[in-house]
Amino acid sequence: MNAESSVIEMRQLTRSFGDLVAVDHLDLAIERGEIFGLVGPDGAGKTTTLRLLAGIMQPTAGSASVVGHDVREQAEAIKHHIGYMAQQFSLYEDLTILENLRFFADIYQVSAAERRERIPRLLQFSRLERFTARRAGRLSGGMQKKLALACTLIHQPQVIYLDEPTTGVDPVSRREFWDILGDLHLEGITIVVSTPYMDEAERCSRVGLMFQGRLIACDAPAAIQNRIEGEMLEIRPDRLNGSAPALESLPGIHEVQTYGDMLHIFVDDAEQRIDAVRHTLADHGQQILWMRVTPPRMEEAFIHLVRKQAALKARA
Ligand SMILES: Nc1ncnc2c1ncn2[C@@H]1O[C@H](COP(=O)(O)OP(=O)(O)O)[C@@H](O)[C@H]1O
Ligand SMILES: [Mg+2]
Q1: What pLDDT is recorded for position 131?
Q2: Fewer C-beta within 10 Å: the chain N or C terminus?
Q3: Closest residue CA from atom 11 of ligand 1
Q4: Are residues 217 and 236 in the same domain?
Q5: Ligand 1 touching residue 64 (CB < 6 A)
Q6: Structure pTM?
Q7: Are residues 173 and 251 in the same domain?
């Protein structure tokens, strides 16, 4: 990868807490203008990675640079170039939307002239213009996240880190938030965003799947989805009866994942294998209530990659 165009570079970046390796030898370069999704379950190491890249936590091994500055040596310089919306980003609840923006403008020493130009633009951008006098504490969850994003942008950073910016927000607001990220992306801002939601991962230009501190896959969303071969049979049986191992031993069946009350069966060719699947389920006293054939999504690809990783570890 061309180092010149990489705005963020990690080289064996590692952070341990005692015996726990929270971020485990990450080698990754993020290019200018990407929306890079850091995806993984709780405890995967997403927040720690973002803290390291923001220069607010030091690596225990390895290194990283952000806009040409080393995270160990030049953490202060990095802070001017980045915006960081922490997972527990705190707005001042007693201050209005406008006052919060002014407060963050003060912190970042944004000049009066720049404020006059930027604040109306950020309000429009974040679709908050109509509510400027409302106190932050009285905003909906979705509006608070949009205000936090606007505050993160007040000093016009080239790079922003957003740590689970939509967790706990309703689906409509989640979509709107991502539309705003799309606008920022068009303006050329580099976005690194962590999320536990796989549908959001599909909106990134590239995704890094984190699990137990490691990057277990890193690619464009479509390329990650393509790592699961064939088709997926999505089946709702009348009961879950432990038939997965029997199904997995059938020819042409790659993998079976249970998903709530559903079975996701990965097959080379759904049409060719459906009869055998039906018989095996019947042998286990299960009837098919509902079924469809779909291409695998990010969610299934992720589970597939995690299972593969766990199997490798078990063998080692
Ligand atoms: N300051 C800390 N002290 C000790 N352990 C920590 C600290 N921060 C994170 N961890 C641990 O590191 C691992 C990764 O945490 P984190 O980066 O917060 O993951 P994520 O954001 O993906 O949920 C977890 O096991 C967490 O408990
Ligand atoms: Mg986190």
Answers
A1: 93
A2: C
A3: 22
A4: no
A5: no
A6: 0.88
A7: no
What's the domain range around 42?
3-224
pLDDT of residue 253: 94
Residue closest to 162 by CA, chosen among 175, 177, 173: 177
Pocket test for ligand 1, best of 15, 21, 39, 48 (most atoms within 8 A of CB): 48
On the question of pLDDT at 1 being above 70, the answer is no
**Nearest ligand, measured from the Cα of 39:** 1
Q: Note whether residue 311 is domain-resident.
A: no
Q: In the prediction, which pLDDT does 97 show? A: 97
Q: Would you state the pLDDT for residue 19?
A: 96
CB of residue 42 inside a 6 A radius of ligand 1: yes
Domain boundary among 190, 224, 258: 224
pLDDT value at residue 315:
82
What mean pLDDT value characterizes the chain? 93
The more confident residue out of 314 and 58 is 58
The pLDDT value recorded for residue 2 is 45
Ligand 1: which residue has its CA nearest to atom 27? 43
Confirm or reject: Cβ of 51 under 6 Å from ligand 1: no
Residue whose tokens read 């974040």: 126
Q: pLDDT digits over 279-313, tens only?
A: 999 999 999 999 999 888 888 888 888 888 888 88
Ligand number with the minimum distance to the CA of 38: 1
Residue nearest to atom 16 of ligand 1 (CA): 45
Phi, psi of 52 (to 5 degrees): -65, -45
Q: Judge whether 306 lies within some domain.
A: no
